[in-house]
Amino acid sequence: xxxxxxxxxxxxxxxxxxxxxxxxxxxxxxxxxxxxxxxxxxxxxxxxxxxxxxxxxxxxxxxxxxxxxxxxxxxxxxxxxxxxxxxxxxxxxxxxxxxxxxxxxxxxxxxxxxxxxxxxxxxxxxxxxxxxxxxxxxxxxxxxxxxxxxxxxxxxxxxxxxxxxxxxxxxxxxxxxxxxxxxxxxxxxxxxxxxxxxxxxxxxxxxxxxxxxxxxxxxxxxxxxxxxxxxxxxxxxxxxxxxxxxxxxxxxxxxxxxxxxxxxxxxxxxxxxxxxxxxxxxxxxxxxxxxxxxxxxxxxxxxxxxxxxxxxxxxxxxxxxxxxxxxxxxxxxxxxxxxxxxxxxxxxxxxxxxxxxxxxxxxxxxxxxxxxxxxxxxxxxxxxxxxxxxxxxxxxxxxxxxxxxxxxxxxxxxxxxxxxxxxxxxxxxxxxxxxxxxxxxxxxxxxxxxxxxxxxxxxxxxxxxxxxxxxxxxxxxxxxxxxxxxxxxxxxxxxxxxxxxxxxxxxxxxxxxxxxxxxxxxxxxxxxxxxxxxxxxxxxxxxxxxxxxxxxxxxxxxxxxxxxxxxxxxxxxxxxxxxxxxxxxxxxxxxxxxxxxxxxxxxxxxxxxxxxxxxx
Length: 616
What we know:
Layout: H1 2-31, H2 36-53, H3 55-71, H4 75-91, H5 95-112, H6 115-131, H7 135-151, H8 155-171, H9 175-189, H10 198-379, H11 383-389, E1 392-398, E2 406-413, E3 416-424, H12 428-445, H13 454-469, E4 482-490, E5 495-501, E6 505-510, E7 514-519, E8 538-541, E9 547-551, E10 559-560, E11 565-566, H14 568-579, H15 584-599, E12 609-615
């Protein structure tokens, strides 16, 4: 039964190892085809996968990942790579190198403000010092980690730090300090949630009390030693006096001693001769004794070796039988693995067929979307028409996918110019359908009869969207719609009417100092809303040279920069104010270049973007 269980465990371990090797093999194959941030991710995963299998290979991939992180200028990726390098050195027992890389990671985490990672790396450094038997340094790092974990309120790490500090103090017999930290630990976790067993706590308390009692006993012994030292000092003075008296008596005996000296010399010569005979006899007896002992040891060693040889022969026979049984089991396992290999190859062929079908479907879908792009472009205002209606303007339109859910619309009716900029729900194909629906409604609604009120155009737009989408205000129905900014300019009087659904209007007036005026939109969309009200109609008197800007939220919400944050409206306003005097075509280039620089190589576009600028 025991042998059977061993074979089962062996098979499971083989299957687990095979799965891990396949995963690592897939990553190494993928490494040949990726670059940039994707290459770093694959190298990082390889380093992590090899950590328990082969720390040396883990270190190799960790160093490669660090090099890629430096090239893409990602401090966070550099810190992650340094963590894997330090851990790989730690696994190999190279503690100095592990500490060096952990400290580099710690410096980066502090600059980046990664407080949780900083606390964890301090705990890791303490663990390396503890493994290297540098317990005082380990205690220092654990105490730093404890302080950092308390600040960020990370209870699991706080518990681990307390337990490590208590254990190290107890190992160093510093039971007083261990007891103090134990009381803090209990207070932090609460009396009903203590992970240390009460028996271990009682042991620490007892050792603390015993250490205290032992210290008191040693103080008592020291007091007794002082008393004894005083007594010895007194006896020494008496002995000095006695020695002086005896010295005088010895002087009187000196003459008698000289006479006895000759007799003693003769006796010494006789003793010396007897000693020489005794030494010679003892040497001879010792040689005989040593020789006998050696013979006895050789005999017992040979006897013991014969017994051991017999036992080993029996064990070898038994192991040969076990090896033979294991060989048979391995043969069966190899047959099973071969069958699995053939099955996997068959599945691989099936997957290749499915992949080809999927690729063909993808091509067909992309072709359809490209066709939809041509249709959408056809219903947008023609460039020649816009150039006739507007003098100095720009349109920055950047779909996230092939087609866009953001759109702009321009129409000239007598001496009025109507402009709309919209952001539809969703992006890609769904957003494109909504944008075409919005343009169709604007073409239908905007007429000479509706030019007296921009807000009335938005009210009618909302009714048409709700009716076409079947929106009744129920909770379960989709909340599709659009955000829209629409304004009408009287080309003769330069009076402007504006109404907006979430999307505002920016006006920059060229006074002695540039001033950006924000005309706020209503906080409701073109579509169903919990509390609907008529849209507000704003009337503003423009001056020649004023710059108007309408836009969707895609530009301000784009992630990028050093810390991966949104661009935000504050930076957008500053960018417009810094460049509004430039020609509109140059302003478009500035906005486009700034967006590319903000995104860099690490970030992709997250939403459709449209910005329309117009100089009156």
